[in-house]
Amino acid sequence: MINLELPKKLRASANQAHQVGAQIFRPISRKYDLAEHEYPVELDTMSAMIEGLSDSGTQNISGAAGGRKVKGEGVGSDSSEPRGNANGGNMSALLNALETCWGDVGLMLSIPYQGLGNAAIAAVATDDQLQRFGKVWAAMAITEPSFGSDSAAVTTTAVLDGDEWVLNGTKIFVTAGSRATHIVVWATVDKTKGRAAIKSFVVPRDAKGLTVSRLEHKLGIKASDTAELRLEDCRIPADNILGSPEVNVEKGFAGVMQTFDNTRPLVAAMAIGVGRAALEELRAILEEAGVEISYDVPPNNQHAAAAEFLRLEADWEAAYLLSLRAAWMADNKKPNSLEASMSKAKAGRMGTDVTLKAVELGGSLGYSQRTLLEKWGRDSKILDIFEGTQQIQQLIVARRVLGLTSTELK
After folding, report:
1. DSSP of 10-56, one letter per residue?
2. Surface-to-core class of residue 247, CB atoms within 10 Å of its CB (0-12 exposed, 13-18 middle, 19+ buried)
3. Cβ-proximal residues to 293 (8 Å cutoff; 6+ apart), any chain
4. What is the helix, strand, coil percentage profile of the chain, to 5?
5. How far apart are CA 320 and CA 406, in angstroms?
6. Degrees to nearest 5, angle at CA 198 with 193 and 199
7. What does each C-alpha distance from 28 to 40, 45, 315 come to in angstroms?
8. How far apart are CA 168 and CA 143, in angstroms?
């Protein structure tokens, strides 16, 4: 049974992440929103601190890398509970992502050595690969010019040539693509075998044949670089393929898709963090305007803005609880593909609704740059898109609930 009270260890880690959001991210948030593609040098000191914490065995404070499914403390576990009901890296990463994104999403995605590709490594790498790639900064390269959310449509190829893989293709919208030390690239090893032949490869950023062709100008998360990458006869060692190189048609796409079971609750947490920031700012604006928000009076008997605030807050709470469940299941080694997609879909939609409604209810303050509300409205949109769009999440949920395959329900 899940216990929603956070244990002391996770509360301490989350509080540390909150301090990062408050003391480091918030003060420079607007600066790097206006200076797109400029590297946030303030994060270098923080990166060194994270590495020190990691070396000492302390959880990292960003949460961006996700976590391997290990035992530890977390929601649903304390010293009096039965063994096996435990939490570890996934729950801690989720809470830390929430708190740092309360500070700034773009900066959170820019923390050195805490890239989204690290979650893929944590999810499917062998023990030897974890040793070799455990301290790299890994971006994730999935999307291509010919497709968005349909990850099975990968056309980038990987051909084994002796003791090396040769990769060819183009990847777009790669977060931290120009800054990361390594890129986790999704490619097919045999186009005739469909999605079962799609594998993920760790490509060093300085590998010959890998180039950054352009950086994107974006609506939000401007502190984070988003790159287009080209692979032209790019050679990497044969053992840089994550997981087994064998094509198992019966298992299909499950191997690489396991990555999303880790990362989708994290993206949900990002939206929850931004949503909470917007709600806090909106509450302050409403109270300053004399609008009282009461939990003892029915919403329809309150000021219209107060009633709307209560609706938004309830929606936020639902997204938060769904994300906790998905992370708890991951840490307890329970299949969580359905719950991961549910949390991502709910939080992504909640994030855009809450932030944009906060801009609206905030009036002139909400639309101006005197607060960060308009920025959070722009930042939140990507959280409903990357790691699988709102529409693809609903499709996955429908398939799981109805027991239908991707062929039966498209």
Report:
1. HHHHHHHHHHHIIIIIHHHHHHHHHSTT---THHHHHHHHHHHHHHT
2. middle
3. 283, 286, 287, 302, 306, 309, 310
4. 50, 15, 35
5. 28
6. 140
7. 9, 14, 29
8. 14
Q: What is the DSSP letter of 232?
A: E
Which residues are paired to 157 by β-bridges? 168, 188
Measured distance CA(273)–CA(21) in Å, rounded:
10
Catalytic residue among 73, 339, 374, 387: 387
User: pLDDT tens, 135-162?
Assistant: 899 999 999 998 877 777 899 999 999 9
Q: Is 5 a catalytic residue?
A: no
How far apart CA 2 and CA 326 sit, in angstroms, is: 11
Instruction: Please tell me what DSSP assigns to residue 144.
Output: B
The count of other CB atoms within 10 Å of the CB of residue 238 is 12
- Rounded to 5 degrees, what are φ and ψ at 189? -95, -10
Among candidates 109, 76, 87, which has minimal Cα distance to 1?
76
Q: With the C-alpha atoms ordered 99, 110, 318, 332, is the resulting torsion angle positive or negative?
A: negative
Given a contact cutoff of 8 angstroms between Cβ atoms, the answer to whether 220 and 106 are in contact is yes
pLDDT digits (tens, 9 = 90+) for 104-131: 999 999 999 888 888 888 878 889 999 9
Predicted confidence (pLDDT) at residue 80 exceeds the cutoff of 50: no
